[in-house]
Amino acid sequence: MLPDKAAAVLKKLSVFPGSFTASAVSFICEDTKNLSLTGLEKFGLVQYNINPDRYFLHEQVKKFIKPLLSPGDRSMTERRLATEFMNVLESVHDQVEKGANEAIKGFRLLDLEMENIKAGMEWGRKHFANNKDAAQICNAYIENGVTMICQRLSPSESIQWLETALTAARQLQDKNAEGQHLLNLGCQYVVLSKFQEATNTLQSALSFCKKEGNVEGQRTALGKLIQIYIRNNDCPSAIKFIEEALELARTNGDKEEEFNLLAQLTISCTQNKEYNKAIDVGDQAMDLVDENEDMPLLINLLYNMGKVHLEKGLAFSLKSSYTPLQGKLYLSLGETIFQTGDIPGALKCLKKALDTVSNAKDLSSKGPIMILLAEIHMQSQGEDQAIHYFEDVLNLSKKNKDHLLEGQAQWKWSQALGKNGSAEEAITRAQKALKIFEALKNPEASDIRTQIDKWSGGD
Fold first, then answer.
1. Taking the C-alpha atoms of 32, 34, 37 and 42 in order, what is their torsion angle to the nearest 10 degrees?
2. Residue 338, in any domain of the structure
């Protein structure tokens, strides 16, 4: 009973997987001015939701009309749908790039059209091998929407899209797109923790970008490879790629990036026990310290320099404007001196550490320093001074509501008492520490139980 034009439009509407706009129907179903759509809505064959201003088909209507669309008309309509939503995705990309309220609008549009966008990409995936237009659509979908798509799709779905786009880019001989798809594909493998696939893909991306002279692509690939190898504790590989990235940064005159890479290289060399190299690289990093705004990285650098060579680490820390780390380095130096048997030297170093952290108001370092001072005094017959330090730590822990520090102080105090033969008092302190550690679910609780049994005369 429908006019032929309206009947044709109705059948073509079956290609939409979800809701749709009048504008999309106008192009995809070739319904100029939406005259047929308006009639279909009046007949109740198409439903309209006023709030998002979108149309949809009832499932029973869609089920009835879907087989009525001829294969030729379906193929053409699906091609037009893929083209339409390629353009929609480009509009979303432009909005998101503007940021602020425009970005919110862009993501809202993306969410509304996601099912249609998926349908458009699916058409491209089915036909790109023998259809240049489909290959261009696959390529464009990823070029315009990779960041947004990867935020909305699962990593496995994103990888499927990226693999399709990569093959399409190669088919089209689009070198820029091919390099970018390789980089994005490697990043998605990282998200899925598929590190072998990630490293293989990113190394391919790195080689490709070198060949094409794409410096920015090389930096991106190197950065991701460095992250992977550091995460997997593969220091030799991390060092290799950090050095390669460092050469690029120096060529480009990027001092901030050079500092970041030198700091990472120092840390990796320390972990790989290449101590002389770590000292040399650390020296170079400290010459660029003013170029750095990454305070956690600076702290990590100084800490690793201290691990390699404590006195040199302290000297480096004094060059920086960030003093709290000095207390930690003094503590490490004091522990080392104490282990050599130089008790006066250790006490002198630790008291300097205590003054440093007190002036810097670094309360997190103050407690461990006072605990070590108390232990040394207890072993060197300075029991009254040791008790004074232990009590100060307990007061500090209660003031800051630091239950872990309180437990550590009680446990260290009990151990010191046990070494001095005061088993009964040692057990009392250890039981207090045990109660705290059990409440905190600290694994050291089992060691305390074992020691209490020994002091109590158990097996």
1. -140
2. no
CA separation for the pair 430, 408 (Å, rounded): 10
Angstrom distances, CA of residue 100 to CA of 104, 113, 114, 149, 221: 7, 20, 21, 19, 29
Angle between helices 4-12 and 71-98 (to 10 degrees): 60
Residue range 98-133, pLDDT digits in tens: 888 888 898 899 889 999 999 999 999 888 888 888
Residue (of 71, 21, 10, 78) closest to 45 by Cα position = 10
Burial class of 1 by CB neighbour count within 10 A (0 to 12, 13 to 18, 19+): exposed
Q: Distance between CA atoms of 335 and 343, rounded to whole angstroms?
A: 10
Provide CB contacts within 8 A for 219, sequence distance 6+.
Answer: 245, 248, 249
Instruction: Report in angstroms the alpha-carbon separations of 298 from 14, 155, 313.
Output: 60, 33, 12
Domain-located, residue 169: no
DSSP code string of 97-146: HH-HHHHHHHHHHHHHHHHHHHHHHHHHHHHGGG-HHHHHHHHHHHHHHH
pLDDT in tens, 305-364: 555 555 555 555 555 554 556 666 667 667 766 776 778 877 877 887 788 778 777 777
Determine the 3-state secondary structure of 232 from DSSP. coil
Domain end marker among 51, 69, 87: 69
**How much is the average pLDDT of 214-228?**
91
Neighbours of 13 (CB within 10 A): 27
- Domain of residue 31 covers 1-69
Q: What is the CATH number of the domain that holds 313?
A: 1.25.40
User: CA–CA separation, 44 vs 46, rounded Å?
Assistant: 5
pTM exceeds cut of 0.70: no
Flag whether 120 is in a domain. no
CA gap 199, 232 in Å, rounded? 12
Is residue 459 situated within a structural domain? yes
Q: Which residue is it, tokens 């290449």?
A: 274
How many structural domains compose the chain?
3
CA distances from 442 to 372, 396, 414, 426, 435 (A): 20, 20, 17, 20, 10
CB 294 within 8 A of CB 267: no
